[in-house]
Write a structure and sequence with these properties.
Elements (H helix, E strand, L loop, with lengths): L1 E3 L2 H13 L4 E6 L5 H13 L2 E6 L9 H5 L5 H10 L4 E3 L3 H4 L18 H4 L3 H16 L3 E5 L3 H14 L4 E5 L19 H22 L4 H13 L4 E10 L13 E9 L2 E8 L2
Parallel strand pairs: 1-4, 2-3, 2-5, 3-4, 5-6
Antiparallel strand pairs: 7-8, 8-9
Length: 279
């Protein structure tokens, strides 16, 4: 695996490969890699001839400086995992390599930015778009692979690609879960043993929602039951449980083509998100 820390070097290297007819698959991450990330790499390996992973903890998408400070950064372990997974290129830049002083970024993506996650993390998706746009510009991938766990993020990036006419195909990959159902996340390492048990209520509520939907229950009932289940779990503070139209993230109704149940909650001191596609 080749490791680059500067934009120019990685761009030049990938430009040579693309000139030789290679296709580039890109997996952008913030590190603290787990099986969920590695499943994205595996998808990329199936669909592209060269797989690039980036590790960059992006400061512009954190609203809370404390959250940024405590974000895990086990770079040596990450490099080892990428090598074992057969990744071809790692781009691991410093913040000063990615950002100059006084940079401005704003892309109007409409209400999508302010729903669900956007409501609880104002400015977050502008930061996500800003860094992903930079990374796309450097790597120039043919395909980019993102996890379904951040369903709204996939929609935001899809909107950005469409608005800016970027020549990259977005691929959403399924959520990887622990054996007990918890969605894999770099934040799970912050859960205490008790938190870990309480966190299972999120996937339970999502499964219950899908089962209720398949059984023909009304969406409002499904949502209320799921919210009640999570609200009664000790050490768990529900932020939202929404049953949304999978194309707009507005409230779903019977005519929605696709329907997604999405949840965010604080378990102990750790904020977790999860979702399930129910139609």
């Amino acid at each position: 695996m080749k490791i680059f820390t500067t934009k120019n070097e990685v761009s030049q290297y990938l430009h040579q490969l693309k000139s030789a007819g290679k296709t580039v698959g890109f997996v952008p991450t913030m590190g603290a890699l787990h099986q969920g990330h590695l499943s994205l790499l595996a998808q990329a390996q199936q669909q592209a001839s060269v797989v690039v992973c980036s590790i960059f903890v992006n400061p512009t998408q954190f609203n809370d400086p404390k959250d940024l400070d405590k974000y895990p950064r086990p770079i040596e372990a990450d490099i080892q995992k990428l090598e074992q997974a057969g990744c071809d290129v790692l781009f691991n830049p410093a913040v000063t390599e990615m950002y100059a002083d006084n940079e401005n970024w704003h892309l109007d993506i409409g209400e999508l930015e302010h729903l669900l996650e956007g409501k609880f993390r104002p400015g977050h998706y502008q930061g996500v778009m800003q860094v992903v746009h930079k990374l796309f510009d450097i790597v120039k991938p043919d395909l980019a692979f993102f996890g379904q766990k951040d369903y709204q993020q996939v929609m935001v990036i899809s909107r950005m690609i469409s608005l800016l006419g970027l020549p990259v195909k977005l691929v959403m990959c399924p959520i990887e879960r622990e054996a007990d159902g918890l969605a894999m996340s770099s934040r799970n390492i912050h859960l205490t043993a008790d938190d870990r048990l309480h966190s299972l209520v999120l996937s339970k509520a999502l499964i219950q929602a899908k089962t209720g939907f398949d059984g023909g229950e009304a969406l409002t009932n499904i949502q209320q039951q799921a919210a009640d289940l999570i609200s009664h779990e000790p050490g768990t503070q529900l932020e939202y449980f929404e049953i949304a139209d999978g194309e707009t993230l507005r409230e779903a109704n019977s005519s929605s083509n696709s329907i997604v149940a999405l949840v965010a909650a604080r378990v102990g001191n750790t904020r977790l998100i999860d979702n399930v596609i129910i139609r």
